[in-house]
Specification:
Strand order of the largest sheet: 1-4-7-10-13-16-19-22
Largest sheet: 8 strands, mixed
Order of helices and strands: EHEEEEEEEEEEEEEEEEEEEEEEE
Helix content: under 10%
Number of strands: 24
Distance between the termini: 43 Å
Number of domains: 1
Oligomer: single chain
């Protein structure tokens, strides 16, 4: 097994990586070809994973799913996760108290990262992009998103570059001085979109947005879906 690729505590997942990397020489530190996964890498409770190479998601499934609680995914500066097929996301977070640290690159056709778990922490100092929602917070309370890197839209969105669903409460978003959240030149979309309320959850509570960097919406003009940030009524998605 190429130790520079990934660190996994789960033998089944480690075996998958061994199978996917047979073509790589153990002494070849210059290997640059992306590795096509045949199965999603699943993180269970308490797992710690470090991605150090370029991994491509299976068709129709995320590259990584954080299924267990208190698991941590780190994409190093040398690593990347991509899900280029239509409707796919690179990282899916279901477990609670999970942590995603990105210092490399994450990209997905539908979402870069999509999450529904409570207590999520995302720290991005790298690059995350998507044709639609770059970071999709579809549910989950008590989360933190801190951006010192770049979130970039690469196509017309179904709403925000960073999207917050109406079911999300107690969220803190920090876009620091070096942080960029950009819907992407030539696209239609918001930098940040917060849906207000949802069926059975009529209001968002405790949504805190702190921006000292750049949040850039795109579009045909200020009256045509081109806000830096948007607060929309229930049903916007």
């Amino acid at each position: 097994m190429n130790a520079s690729l990934i660190q996994l505590p789960c033998p089944q997942q480690a075996q998958l990586i061994i199978q996917e990397t047979k073509r790589m020489s153990p002494n070849d530190s210059t290997q640059t070809n992306p590795i096509q996964l045949t199965e999603t890498l699943v993180l269970d409770e308490g797992d710690r994973v470090i991605i150090r190479e370029d991994l491509v998601a299976p068709i129709g499934d995320p590259a990584v799913q954080i299924a267990g609680d208190e698991a941590r995914l780190t994409v190093s500066g040398q690593g990347s996760l991509s899900a280029p097929d239509a409707g796919n996301s690179a990282v899916e977070v279901v477990g609670n108290e999970a942590e995603v640290i990105n210092r490399g690159s994450i990209s997905g056709a539908l979402n870069g990262i999509t999450a529904i778990g409570d207590g999520l922490t995302v720290r991005n100092s790298g690059h995350i992009e998507s044709d639609s929602r770059v970071v999709d917070l579809s549910d989950g309370d008590g989360s933190l998103f801190r951006n010192t890197g770049t979130l970039l839209g690469t196509g017309n969105q179904r709403n925000g570059t960073l999207y917050v669903d109406g079911t999300v409460d107690d969220l803190r978003v920090e876009n620091t001085r070096s942080g960029v959240i950009d819907a992407g030149e030539g696209n239609l979309g918001d930098g940040i979109s917060v849906q207000v309320g949802a069926a059975g959850d009529p209001s968002n509570e405790g949504i805190n947005l702190v921006n000292t960097g750049l949040v850039q919406g795109r579009g045909d003009g200020p009256d045509v879906f081109a806000d830096g940030a948007r607060v929309a009524a229930n049903g916007s998605s």
